[in-house]
């Protein structure tokens, strides 16, 4: 059966999801979950959540899908142990350290690979199946045919997003929030850089191609494709930041669809809670041009009419859909919004009305124009319907009882429910009924009072032996049986752990630091060769996403897990920054997979690099082999979406240079041959002055993207001079350069 997986940012949302038919819930704790600004759960409320869910046969998965710095590793392990004791069904992780710890220590709690890992192919899925994952959450960019292919070949449960907000960048591969605002998306503190407005600049002519919300994606909605989706193991709804009524609305519609009970009207009701307009997503081949809504980044609502006349102090609205008193509307006027709750609604005669179907009138102070479009952003009555659904029981479980009641004996009841048997025995002795023995109907009457439980009375066996059973005793028996079955259900889940095996220690001989370079063009490559750089990443780069693995010679720079799986037997390799390595255990696991060297994340500062090295030494009696990027325009995001196509610049991207611009700066756009896009930081990471102070790093990488051949040569000479100590004057430029996170810890 396909699992319907719902989000819960708090207990109210969790109950809303369960009462509307979900099969599983994913939620986050106060730390290590990729939604730091959701209410989230502490251990006490999580225990309440697990109890509530498990009694209703709903699973609980906890998101621990952030990167884990070295000084947090022990706290991370403690939290995982606590989650196992509470009895959660699985943990969704990004960091290899968390993944490794769950797989090696816990037998009943599953490790799920988060979409933050960027797994989008068969190879990456097979790698984590081999490593012990019980489920893989695929990237949102994977098309449905490929999802089915991965499922068929890898034979491991797959989870995909089917509804809700989309990241414009591949998840886990967006550094924009952290590098620009010091609030890291990989730490659950994304500032929503993609929801801001930007100006698209043609740098060749210095012309503006327009200012809008060019990176803001529409919301995913795949309910029309439910028959295709039924082949997938778990269908995930986004929304841990959303209110309970949103969760109730979306979960109920997908439940109806999965149960073949959905109507077109119910599908339309998805518009009645938060949406940025909808897209079928890359999952169902949305045109890249239509994946974004550049008009507005927040709740769009749905169109219900237009301003048709201005009558004295009132505006006339000609409606295409009903408008009720207390609905919330937004009116688009000169590219600005007027938002209001309709407290007073008038008819043509100026009389107050509660509802209008065709024409109505409103009084507001703001200036509007004829033709302004009216959108409804909150339907008052529909919201009340959703609120009424928040704590109902979606289904009740049958309770069968066999009652043994004989005079001069105890009351015995054999009860069956939730797949368990519970045997009740009263303390008191029953008496003989002289005139009115307790009947089967009286037993049924008392045992039917189950509305505050998850049960409904189903089958009752009762043989009349002329005993009298006080109603008070029957009620006490009912309560005892319910609690007894609850306890049997909740205590049935095993929480086994296993002892860790002694691991093989891996360490590397110390090397004199040297320079490597990654390049984008043949001219940059030639410049690096002419300057004596021995390790250059150009045609030997295997990026994290969107890969078609081809036979390659020599050492590779691999940015994704699928690449590691595919090439580990044929090519020596270095892992790239895009694996988000920030702790010693992640390094160790990559060395075990064959990595010659590991490139550390852009999101580490100097002291955290030292923490990692020291921890690695303590665990392995030797140092790791590390690479650090010390120069270049950092990749803020890698996306399947193309902003130039959206702005009708398709096919000319290779003849011109483009950038996005906002109040913070200009962000160059790299267009790749397969129409994917990398957005670069406008400022250049420059740690060349710091090279002598960064200890224990084998390779310092210079990353060249938009630099000319002359600039490449200049930077290599500066880096060489700084590395060998022959250049003393500073090369950092306050106006054009940044030190990134080198001296500042990211949030």
From TrEMBL:
Domain Peptidase U32 collagenase: 374-487
Pfam families reported for this sequence: DUF3656, Peptidase_U32
InterPro entries: Pept_U32_collagenase (IPR020988), Peptidase_U32 (IPR001539), RNA/ubiquinone_mod_enzymes (IPR051454)
Name this protein carries in UniProt: Peptidase U32
Organism: Paenibacillus stellifer
